[in-house]
Amino acid sequence: MNKIVIAIDGYSACGKSTTAREVASVLGYTYIDSGAMYRAVTLYFHEHHVSLTNEKDVVGAIENIGIDFRVNKEAGRCDTYLNGMNVEKEIREMYISENVSQVSRIRAVREAMVNQQRKLGRKKGVVMDGRDIGTVVFPDAELKIFMLADIYVRSVRRQNELYERNQLVDLQEIRENLEKRDRIDTSREIGPLKQADDAVVLNTTFMTLEEQVDEVVNLALSKIVGKKEVSLGT
Ligand code: CDP
What residues does ligand 1 touch, defined as CB less than 6 Å away? Predict the structure, then answer.
């Protein structure tokens, strides 16, 4: 069967990652969480006291960063590894969320991550979620989704997600963090969060996870079948 690239972009905590993971599992595709990569870089910069305004420091640090994803059978997901260490729990902490948008707006960081993301998606059969996947990383992706949802709903969803990871965080603190990141992510110069012209918009405010997954899987199947017809006719 023909394999396609599915790019899912959108605002923080609209259900991108959960939907992308499920869609990948239904289609037998690889799921790549590009946000986890920016979070891992943020953790490295924090641990090594890298000054975000010192370009030489930033470039030097990036050369020492290796990020990969490994299957965690017990948790039924892939965990993020930074230089061989499992950092999946650490990168979801609030102090990382507080700083990640300042790190992800740096040109050298974006260039390194986009290169790596393109390599990971080279063979197709991937679902990647992020902010610039359909616009910068894979502008030729066969299916692009742009997700949005009401800010209150997003805050509650993120609070529940953190609670499941044993983190109790105040709803207002979460809301402020989401709003702040949206602001920085949409206004940055390189690879800003924005809807690709050919993206399908999915407002998930009143949707269940199951409905979101069904919607994306159906769109993907029509692209896969469409692609097959084209190649059969030639
Ligand atoms: O899961 P959540 O919506 O909180 O965010 P994430 O996907 O883990 O991404 C964390 C941060 O990484 C975002 O707020 C962006 O600053 C950055 N990011 C990015 O710049 N480009 C991407 N393709 C993915 C994430």
Answer: 12-13, 17, 34-35, 38-39, 100-101, 104, 130-133, 181, 185
